[in-house]
Write a structure and sequence with these properties.
This protein has 163 residues and is of the alpha+beta class. It has two domains: 54 residues, 2,3-Dihydroxybiphenyl 1,2-Dioxygenase, domain 1 (Roll), CATH 3.10.180; 85 residues, 2,3-Dihydroxybiphenyl 1,2-Dioxygenase, domain 1. Helix content is 18%, strand content 26%. The strands form two sheets. It has a five-stranded mixed sheet with strand order 5-8-7-6-9, covered by helices on one side. A hairpin with a 7-residue loop joins β3 and β4. The longest helix is centred in the middle third of the chain and has 13 residues.
Length: 163
């Protein structure tokens, strides 16, 4: 039976908390490469990072996973974590940073409502870096549902935002 309850408008994902196998290696990715600010550490087992001074958007811990294997790709679990960038230029900046650092990008898609870059963190967790298009640019189907697509993203056009 479908629920009649609806989450209130303004509800959002507050943070993600990932099990990682090597905390320092993960900090090099999330802090040093993606640029999230380290807000606090719990000894040498956990770290919390944010953008813009929030207490944390990302939690990383090795409580049950230190030295372990990455999560299996063909099993239930987190598909990817998505980080929303405020502007197309901000997305272009992080893409250029990835390219300049030789970090592998596994995909780049135009979803009609957003533009997205896909990569994996050091433990194989999927990461999406994206920006939303303004709602006025979204397409809708005849039934009123949002039309989302997966088309190739023109990275060279995205990088023109930096010139």
């Amino acid at each position: 039976m479908p629920s009649t309850y609806q989450a209130p408008a303004g509800t959002s994902v507050g943070h993600i908390h990932l099990k990682v196998t090597d905390l320092e290696r993960s900090l090099k990715f999330y802090r040093d490469l993606l640029g999230f600010e380290l807000t606090t550490m719990y000894g040498d087992q956990a770290a919390f990072l944010s953008a813009g001074g929030y207490h944390h958007h990302i939690g990383l811990n090795t409580w049950h996973s230190k030295g372990g294997a990455p999560a299996p790709q063909r099993a239930a679990g987190l598909y990817h974590t998505a980080f929303l960038y405020p502007t197309r230029k901000d997305l272009a900046k992080i893409v250029k940073r990835l390219i300049d650092n030789g970090y592998p990008i596994s995909g780049a898609s135009d979803h009609g409502v957003s533009e997205a870059i896909y990569l994996n963190d050091p433990d194989g967790n999927g990461v999406e870096l994206y920006r939303d298009r303004p709602k006025e640019e979204w397409n809708y189907r005849a039934d009123g549902s949002i039309e989302m697509v997966t088309e190739p993203l023109d990275i060279s056009d995205l990088l023109k935002e930096l010139t």
